[in-house]
């Protein structure tokens, strides 16, 4: 029995590696084409060149406070061995994905037994979302094994809160935060839940025990994050993990809020989006804080950081002035990401042609939403019938409807798995469901597929539980 379990596990891991290696062979891509990928590459190169943790291509090499250091350090280590070639990192990243598959197997086995682990690992090995990003320099490739490892160790700590398990869980979550700062609130929530969940079970007298373990968790977490916090305090004179929140508020949330107030549909980074950013954020901050009039000689990097802070202040006031519009804009972004079938990315890969060549609308949900807001229900459904049944070419129709059916089936299985796990292990169900909701909801107006990749392991584990325990 143990030998069979071992062989099944090895086979699934080899399949995962082969699938990702095959993807790199069949669909080669420029690893530096995305903007974020270029940024991580520059950070790694500047670190090796002795220019510090900087995103600048030339002097002055201003130290960056938006990114966190772990993924650039990972790239720098690879570049040190293979030279300043992104292709070297691309060849290593399938190994990280295989490690994630192994951790998904362990997580599924911990929750529902060996077969659940096999099914979950097989689903993850064959999923078409995460493997598309192994060919680019994205931090999610390193983030995924850290998040899955943190979930697994956290569940072990919930079952038996030994000091070693608690400290290891805090270490995993801390490293995840140092890979992408948006994980920080989930990390804090796991520690708080570890202290409070005994109140929800029949043995509340153990609250003191678990509270002490939560204290150990936060002390370990602080020890992991302290060097980076201290570094940012020296730069910003504030205890801050990252300025990503301030940047996103100015570049994303405030702009989406203004578009919602004006009743204008603005996709991120389009000319309309940039117009709002320049006119409502940059120009207002320039006039209000007298960028041209005040003395700004000396440290150019300090001036740049000060201007970004001032744009954040303007953006924060916009969001505070229109809180309902901000919430609606955030919810719309999440809704668009949930309704996006991914067809605009898969169709070019399979055919070599853009989705626009099909002659049908790429975002039918946006078209239907516009009609429904005007009360034209019949027009909304007529547009759907024309664009997704009558006019759509056969291959495009198979792809779109297939992705829709697959997504509905996956979310249905995920819901059934959550119900079964809630009855058997409520603390585990809450942890997995909370992780999924966190990564799906947090990005808001820019809720692209890449941002909810860390939720996929939890989804496939819950789906595997539903397949193994359907009742």
Beta-strand residue fraction = under 5%
Termini separation: 26 Å
Pick out the low-confidence regions.
none
> Helix proportion of residues, in percent?
over 70%
Mean of all residue-level pLDDT scores? 88
By DSSP (H or I, 4+ residues per run), the number of helices equals: 19
Number of strands: 0
Rg, Cα atoms, Å: 24 Å
Question: Explain this structure to me?
Answer:
With 471 residues, this protein is an all-alpha fold. Among the domains are: 1-138, no CATH class; 143-242; 244-321, no CATH class. The protein is built from 19 helices and no strands. Helix 3 packs across helix 4, helix 4 runs parallel beside helix 6 and helix 10 crosses helix 11. The chain starts with a helix and ends with a helix. The relative contact order is 0.10.
List the helices and strands and how they pair.
Blueprint lengths: L1 H25 L8 H14 L21 H13 L3 H27 L1 H13 L13 H20 L3 H17 L4 H13 L10 H30 L7 H19 L8 H18 L11 H22 L1 H17 L3 H9 L12 H10 L3 H14 L3 H31 L1 H16 L14 H13 L3
Helix pairs in contact: 1-4, 1-5, 2-3, 3-4, 4-5, 4-6, 4-19, 5-19, 6-7, 7-9, 8-9, 10-11, 10-12, 10-13, 11-12, 15-16, 17-18, 17-19, 18-19
Defining key terms:
single chain, mainly alpha, globular
Question: What's this, in brief?
Answer:
This protein is an all-alpha fold and 471 residues long. Among the domains are: 1-138, no CATH class; 143-242; 244-321, no CATH class. It has helices spanning 2-26, 35-48, 70-82, 86-112, 114-126, 140-159, 163-179, 184-196, 207-236, 244-262, 271-288, 300-321, 323-339, 343-351, 364-373, 377-390, 394-424, 426-441, 456-468.
């Amino acid at each position: 029995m143990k030998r069979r379990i071992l062989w099944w596990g090895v086979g699934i891991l080899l399949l995962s590696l082969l699938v990702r290696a095959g993807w790199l062979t069949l669909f080669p891509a420029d690893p530096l084409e995305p903007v974020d990928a270029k940024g991580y590459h520059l950070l790694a190169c500047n670190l090796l060149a002795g220019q510090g943790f900087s995103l600048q291509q030339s002097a002055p090499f201003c130290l960056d406070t938006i990114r966190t250091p772990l993924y650039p350090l990972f790239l720098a280590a690879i570049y040190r061995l293979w030279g300043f070639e992104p292709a070297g990192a691309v060849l290593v990243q399938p190994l990280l994905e295989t490690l994630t598959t192994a951790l998904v197997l362990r997580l599924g086995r911990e929750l529902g037994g060996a077969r659940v682990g096999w099914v979950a690992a097989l689903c993850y090995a064959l999923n078409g979302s995460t493997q598309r990003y192994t060919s680019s320099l994205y931090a999610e490739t390193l983030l995924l094994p850290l998040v899955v490892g943190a979930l697994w160790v956290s569940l072990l700590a919930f079952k038996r809160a030994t000091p070693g398990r608690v400290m290891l869980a805090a270490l995993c979550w801390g490293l995840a935060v140092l890979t992408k700062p948006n994980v920080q609130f989930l990390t804090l929530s796991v520690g708080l839940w570890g202290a409070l969940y005994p109140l929800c079970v029949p043995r509340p007298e153990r609250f003191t025990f678990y509270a002490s373990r939560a204290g150990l968790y936060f002390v370990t977490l602080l020890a992991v994050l302290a060097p980076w916090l201290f570094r940012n305090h020296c730069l910003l004179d504030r205890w801050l993990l990252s300025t990503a929140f301030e940047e996103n508020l100015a570049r994303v949330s405030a702009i989406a809020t203004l578009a919602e107030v004006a009743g204008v549909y603005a996709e991120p980074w389009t000319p309309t989006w940039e117009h709002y950013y320049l006119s409502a954020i940059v120009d207002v901050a320039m006039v209000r804080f007298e960028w041209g009039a005040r003395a700004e000689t000396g440290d150019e990097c300090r001036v740049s950081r000060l201007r970004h802070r001032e744009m954040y202040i303007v953006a924060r006031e916009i969001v505070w002035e229109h809180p309902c519009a901000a919430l609606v804009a955030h919810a719309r972004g999440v809704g668009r990401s949930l309704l996006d079938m991914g067809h605009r990315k898969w169709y070019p890969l399979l055919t070599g042609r853009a989705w626009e060549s099909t002659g049908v609308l790429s975002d039918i949900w946006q078209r239907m939403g516009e009609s429904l807001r005007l009360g034209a229900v019949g027009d909304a459904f007529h547009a759907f019938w024309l664009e997704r049944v009558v006019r759509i070419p056969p291959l495009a129709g198979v792809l779109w409807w297939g992705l829709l059916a697959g997504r509905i089936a996956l979310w249905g299985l995920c819901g059934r798995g959550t119900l079964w796990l809630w009855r058997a292990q409520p603390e585990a169900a809450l942890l997995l469901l909370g992780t999924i909701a966190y990564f799906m909801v947090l990005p808001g107006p820019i809720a692209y597929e890449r941002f909810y990749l860390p939720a996929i392991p939890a989804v496939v584990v819950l789906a595997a539980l539903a397949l193994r325990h359907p009742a």
